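User: Predict the complex with S-adenosylmethionine.
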Amino acid sequence: MPDAAKRHDPPRFDPTVPNVARMYDYYLGGKNNFAADREAAEQALTFAPELREGAHEARKFLSRVVFFLADEGIRQFIDLGCGLPTQGNVHEVAQGRAPGSRVVYVDNDPVVVAHARALLENNPLAVAIHGDLRQVGDVLADPALRRHLDFTQPVAVLLFSVLHVIADDEVCQRIMDEARESVPDGSYFAISHFVSDLNPDAYAKVAGVYRDKVDIPAHRRTTMRSSAEVIPFFAGLEMVEPGLVYLPRWRPDAADLDRGLPEVSAVGGVGRKLSVS
Ligand SMILES: C[S@@+](CC[C@H](N)C(=O)[O-])C[C@H]1O[C@@H](n2cnc3c(N)ncnc32)[C@H](O)[C@@H]1O
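Assistant: Here is the predicted structure with S-adenosylmethionine placed in the model:
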């Protein structure tokens, strides 16, 4: 199944029900997953074997985006739907490039937040809070987040591989609109999103695995979004070059270009909130 009765909001620790964060950890070769997660992930992989490479490319995209933002002078990062800690977490990348960068990790899965807090015990510049991005206004007003960040200065809001697990287009659009209104001018938004474009049938089946088996509240999608359906999420933002593209094509570094860019079914982009005046 798992039947609707096993769906929890927020996700509750149950190793017998596949969990979105642990399945992603499995695609990335991590150890924080159980048999039920591996079984569901393997089923998704039979339909779309490139999911594993897509997840790795998504993490590489994350690093390139954080480098770019640090080079643009951003020193405050909010990682929404941060997932289980892995290699190259946002605070490691950001603080490696720009020491002193402050990071707030947010996830609606309490187990993810507990893992993040354990990792961050000795890093006063990074904190993890529990929050549901479907209530992004509350998340961005959370006192712990506001104590940690200075909202008179721009922030970067990162939504990596998370909007595609939120079924409703209107909910995603509202998340983006509310978040954009809540942050200072000059703030950036980065999104990565798996898409159906290259193989719609396979990704309809992948969406089915998540809809039917995985502990994601109210997940009703029968298809994965196409890249055209992701573009509106950047409304009100000025796109950074090269726009919304397949992840490996977003500002690849020289080593990536030498190796040749793989084809993966996920897109990403960065947009900047302009000042109104
Ligand atoms: C596929 S993982 C991506 C993790 C990480 N951002 C990355 O790119 O590696 C999606 C994460 O989003 C979290 N998530 C899903 N729905 C959420 C929601 N409504 N609010 C906050 N986090 C959510 C899941 O718990 C999971 O940790």
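The CA atoms of residues 104 and 145 lie 7 Å apart.
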